[in-house]
Structures
1.
Amino acid sequence: MFKKQKPHLVIIGNGVAGVTTARRVRERSDMAITIISAESRYHFSRTALMYIYMGHMRFEDTKPFPDWYWEQNRINLVHGFVTEIDTGNKRVRLQDGREITYDKLVIATGSQPNKFGWPGQDLPGVQGLYSLQDLQRLEENTPRIRHAVIVGGGLIGIELAEMLMSRNIPVTFLVRERYFYDIILPQEEAKLISRHILEHGVDLRLSTELKEILPGPDGHVRAVVTSRGEEIACQFVGLTVGVHPNIDVVKTRPSKPTAACW
Ligand SMILES: Cc1cc2nc3c(=O)[nH]c(=O)nc-3n(C[C@H](O)[C@H](O)[C@H](O)COP(=O)(O)OP(=O)(O)OC[C@H]3O[C@@H](n4cnc5c(N)ncnc54)[C@H](O)[C@@H]3O)c2cc1C
């Protein structure tokens, strides 16, 4: 007798949105669930990235669930990057050629760090802080950093400053606002935090923006130029100027199908 297949929920992205969707659906339904994610095989807490760099946690400690959790809850994990969504045929294609069909698709692909077209923004030694791969790049960049510049006075910027200073790297912090975070905080509190940042030895430059990033003879970043016309020598630039939705995958057009393997 023909056994009807369970409907298949596919979730792209194993961040907190993707895994929470999977867990809540599993509580209420018996449908097949697959989470596809490129960054890491297992869900980890992005908010803990800084503690890995600072030596307070290992990557293993940032995983809120033991590795057996997923199999026990019948949540299938696929480690790979989705390059195409073919809504006509209800399937997604991965970079390695695999294709996975779905009945329901959830796109939980998070966000990407902003870059605003500054000259030099893609030079070696210039990066954002979002993903595990960014953390790895930061580790690779660290040995050559004698002075760092961070651009953007938000929470990731201040985290990055703390991270670098935990390795005794001096930091200049370019903040567009009159006081740190005064777009969110009342002015008195923003002033207090700005004072606190300075007292902790960060070279905080308020009302200052990035104009340009300059390469050295080896092609690596050697300095930034600020909106005040000042050149600041550095071997690292952290771009922490917010994020935008990561929706590249929904913009791609489906190409011809290859052999389905799942
Ligand atoms: C350093 C840092 C510190 C933070 N600290 C805090 C904090 O203290 N408190 C707080 O509330 N928030 C914090 N945030 C923000 C918080 O981490 C995010 O809001 C949250 O992670 C968003 O979850 P998400 O599931 O929407 O997306 P994400 O966590 O971005 O997960 C999306 C996943 O989808 C994957 N993906 C994207 N496209 C594809 C594709 N085509 N194929 C396969 N996989 C794909 C990505 O690689 C990623 O792993 C912090 C963020 C950062 C970067």
Note: Residues 40 and 54 are 20 Å apart (CA to CA).
2.
Amino acid sequence: MSNKYIEEASKLSPRAKAMLEDFKADLEKGISRIGILNDEEIYQAELEKIFGKRWNYLAHETEIPNNGDYVLRYIGDDKFIVTRDSNGKINAILDVCPHRGASVCRAEKGNSSHFRCPYHGWNFKNNGELVGAPAFKDAYDGLDRSQWGMKHAPRVEKFHGFIFACLDEYAPSLEESLSGMAWYLDMIFSLQDEGMEVLGEPQRFTIKGNWKIAAENFSGDDYHLMYLHKSTYDIGVMQIPLKENMKGYHIQAGNGHGVSFSIDLESEDPLFFFYPEEIVKTFNLDNLSEDQLRLARGSRVCVGNIFPNISFLMLPLSPDPKNVPPTPLFTWRIWRPIGKDEIEVFNWFFMYKNTSEEFKRASYQAAVSSFGIAGTFEMDDPVPWETMTRNAGGTFAKKHMKLNLQMGLNGMGTSKQVMDWPFPGIAHYPRFEEGNQRAMYRTYIEEMLKDE
Ligand code: FES
Ligand SMILES: [Fe+2]
């Protein structure tokens, strides 16, 4: 493919560029643009400039534990087969047959040593190498097979068993790109020597909403809990009172990532997200630095977004408040854009590996009943997300609607920057604050306007 096409494909249209420049000019005043939430040109540019450049989450090692295991996953609008090949190496292989472009893999997951294209029967190893094709001698004698294997994502890296890929071969490493967020994730994933394992299949569903709305929600919109999710709180699924739960920190973790803790750093009893004592006993606290231990000890809830579209949440909830005590759960999800106004959610639940089957089941039940497809929390959010997205497509709204992103800015409200924050990033207390969202959009605009 000519370099000229590649260069041109990633250029903004003058109209999209003007929209982003307007947004940039207003962002530091806490003003955002509704128009970027439903716009075809902006969306096409995001596929190139955001999803084509950043680290994207694909799968967890425990989803493909054996040689030959594979799952189908996506980066933007491209489909990849994530395989553990016959040598145990993990690959992200573009599911496009190099012969004429058909998909070679038609199952969502499985175990196979080879993939055979259904069109003309080219046959590939599970590391993407071309092995052969029907009537090879008649059809292809002289073809250099080594040149016609399947294409790989140029970069694949892991963080605590979480597998990411990046389509930009010159991007910084995954860990560098995670910036301060690596420290907070490390705190969560290191609690047990064995790490975490996936519980079952990812739940998948679509929302007629723009991916950025979901990302900014998880990056630091705790404020909506007080209203949108109030009825869920009222039935007692969470035992931390709403106002108490706002006591905590918003942390801009660098590179557009945002994380938020409901926390009591002075708590006499160790909290550890309310994991029961028998689970806390399995934690190896030597894996944590002194600072990480202090934070984990006081943590009640942790929620965050890894820019661009990977969100997570650890908190204790009850699936049945009258009969079942709250159990900690961990959800990890991606908001895969499938258009300017729609996302497909991949929603995984995880638990520490070295816990009983009974505890894993209890955590899974707490997770499914709250943050599953039909969960008490999960069902609330798409309602405003979908109207926001629909409204953003309005011709008049797109030109004239500016939105408010000012909470906590220049002394507004009670939230203040914590000047002596001892951990990575920039922190504010309490969580009545939208600095994480502003930081996310600052990175977003920088990426979108890069090389323009
Ligand atoms: S398109 Fe795959 S073998 Fe022809
Ligand atoms: Fe929500």
Note: The first helix runs from residue 3 to 9.
